[in-house]
Structures are given as structure tokens and as C-alpha cells.
Specification:
The chain has 204 residues and is of the alpha+beta class. Helices cover 25% and strands 26% of the residues. The chain has helices spanning 7-20, 27-36, 38-41, 92-103, 144-150, 180-184, and strands at 54-59, 67-70, 76-79, 83-86, 112-118, 123-128, 134-137, 163-169, 172-178, 200-203. A hairpin with a 2-residue loop joins strand 8 and strand 9 (172-178). The longest helix is centred in the N-terminal third of the chain and has 14 residues, at 7-20.
């Protein structure tokens, strides 16, 4: 189920978190947790397709059946012969298996590939004292610094050494402190972590 967020609610929640937070752990704590976690050492969870994503479906030796298709709001894509196919909520590998089953009715031993052309369904939020606060599409391997740049950079009153990263971990929202100056100066690049869907960056 897709979690619906509003910028206003997120902003209020961020202000509450910052005002109530006592000893907020550094994002380095999160980095260490990920490094020591067996789950983190394994490959990342496969990307789950969502509405707005653009997929390329290729059927080997069947160019007339191969096409790029955007995932509609109802979670489906439209393809030749098989018409509407549910894609949202599946990984590319799972969708591939589903399409193989559908195309067996039309193609002998179909060889199907599904690749992500453009991800548009995963969002992050950059709020507080940046020049262009709001919701942004999460790009592949996007880091904290890249997200702040996308949001127009920090305004002159932003607390550069006390940026907050809010992330849901095992169903609970956790807050971590990020020192922007330590990152851009090269003093501690480890804090410039990659973002995950629904991460919120808040600048007090």
C-alpha cells in the first residue's frame, strides 16, 4: 500500500521531531548499522515498480511486440497482444515472469526482458531552510548533498551542522543528525549517505 504524504504534515512533523529531540544520533550511527548488518551486506532489496515509472519490455526477435511503457495510476502497463498487465508492486524480475506466461499464448518460448528506463514513483522530501523545499523524485544512488542541491541549496539561515535525516526503519521513524560542512569540506564523506524512498531531510 502506497503511503500518502503531504508536505504540510511532514513539515509539522519535522518541527515536532526537532523540538522534542534530545541527543540525536549522528548519521554515522546509521552507516555503522548498515555496515554491520548482514542484511545490508547482501544486495539491496529489489526495486519495486510503482505508478509513473517507465519500463522497457523487450521480446527477443519480436520487435513489433517490444516497447517502452509508463506505469499508469492504476498500476498497469499496456503492451501489444496482452493488453493491460499489472506492474505496480512487482519487481522487474517478477513482471518478466508474468509476461513470459502471458506471451506464451502468442510466441513460442518467449524470451522477455524488463528494464527500468526511468524511475518516477519513489519520492523524497526536502523541507525547512532550503531555497526550494518540497517533494522530489528519488533518482538512482541519490545522496544527501545531491538532494539538497536539487532543492536549490541551503538558505543563509540554515543550520549547516545540524541537518536532520528522518527515515522509517522497521516501521518506526528514526532521526539522525547530518553535518553538511563535514561532508562538503571532505572531513567526513561517510555522512553523505544514499537516500531511500520516503526519506525526509529537514533543515532547522
Amino acid at each position: 500500500m502506497v503511503k500518502k504524504r503531504t508536505i504540510a504534515a511532514l513539515f509539522i512533523g519535522c518541527v515536532f521531531v526537532v523540538s522534542c529531540a534530545g541527543n540525536v544520533p549522528s548519521v554515522r550511527t546509521l552507516v555503522k548499522q548498515q555496515e554491520t548488518s548482514q542484511h545490508a551486506r547482501m544486495s539491496h532489496n529489489p526495486y519495486v515498480i510503482g505508478p509513473g515509472d517507465i519500463l522497457a519490455v523487450n521480446i527477443w526477435k519480436e520487435p513489433e511486440l517490444s516497447k517502452e511503457s509508463a506505469v499508469r495510476l492504476d498500476g498497469k502497463i499496456s503492451l501489444p497482444l496482452v493488453n493491460d498487465v499489472k506492474a505496480a508492486g512487482l519487481t522487474c524480475a517478477e513482471l518478466r515472469e508474468r509476461l513470459i506466461g502471458r506471451y506464451r499464448n502468442y510466441v513460442e518460448s518467449p524470451e522477455v526482458s524488463v528494464t527500468m528506463v526511468e524511475s518516477r514513483s519513489k519520492k523524497i522530501y526536502v523541507l525547512g531552510k532550503v531555497n526550494q523545499p518540497g517533494e522530489y523524485t528519488l533518482q538512482k544512488d541519490m545522496t544527501i548533498v545531491q538532494a539538497l542541491s536539487l532543492a536549490g541549496g541551503l538558505d543563509e539561515w540554515a543550520s549547516r551542522s545540524d541537518i536532520r535525516l528522518i527515515r522509517e526503519i522497521n516501521g518506526t521513524e528514526k532521526t539522525f543528525k547530518v553535518d553538511y560542512d563535514a561532508i562538503v569540506s571532505g572531513q567526513d564523506l561517510s555522512q553523505n549517505i544514499q537516500l531511500q524512498p520516503d526519506d525526509t531531510i529537514f533543515l532547522p
